[in-house]
Amino acid sequence: MALTITDTASQPKTEIHPDNYRFLQDYIYRESGIVIDSDKHYLLEARLMPVARKQELSSIDDLCNLLKATVSTGELRQQVVEAMTTHETLFFRDLPQYDALRTTILPALIEQRRATARLSFWSAAASSGQEAYSLAMILIEMGLRDWRIEIVGTDLSDAILDRARAGRFMQIEVNRGLPVSYLVKYFTRAGLEWELKEDVRKMVTFRRMDLRDNLQTLGPFDVVFCRNVLIYFDTETKRQVLQRIQDTIHHGGYLLLGGAETTLSLVDTMERVMIGQAVAYRVP
Fold first, then answer.
1. Which of 4, 29, 150, 250 is least surrounded by Cβ atoms within 10 Å, i.e. has the fewest?
2. pLDDT value at 207 more than 70
């Protein structure tokens, strides 16, 4: 029987040395606020091996050595942060919240702002833009095309923000959550993709923002979306981020969080309100 000898030295290594695992936990937390638990080896390997290969490295340990070295660049740091950031999103995600916007939140805000005909919104962790663009389409449907509408989308990832600005989506992306009537009305075919019409795209501006930074350049907003972000932070970071976000919201404005998130025991100055099947947090 013939034996086949595999040259293991030529195979990429993904096992992470314990010291480097701890280094990555600290590094990712420092750069993004994301907490990596001690049992997430598979996650680090899946997310960071493509970065290592792009640097022509054979292991995540080698990537750690490069990050520690003085030759490490801001571009490499950004690649690591973007690799560890989750960009899962879809049009009209968590539909009860959009129903709450249509039926209750926006009609009340329209009455309050009728004199100025101005409304402002923030989509934090906007990813590729579906959340912000879903809101833009709702506002058009509600007859607010002539109002002064400000929608700001922010994210840590420059690459994902470039995608958001382009407003182009694959077939599988428009199939997830987007009503067919909206696809026909607000998109045009662009090769294998669908492109949002310019009048929707121009309603939203995108910029890079770390939620742990000073947010005083933002707002004030009538509604802030910060959904499925806090779950990646530790308790103290959640508290600080929520306080900073609250300071960007008009009195009487709303914060919308993900289904697994809450302000409870973190910030006690926002009122939790049920609107249909949706939970919102109102700034008094």
1. 4
2. yes
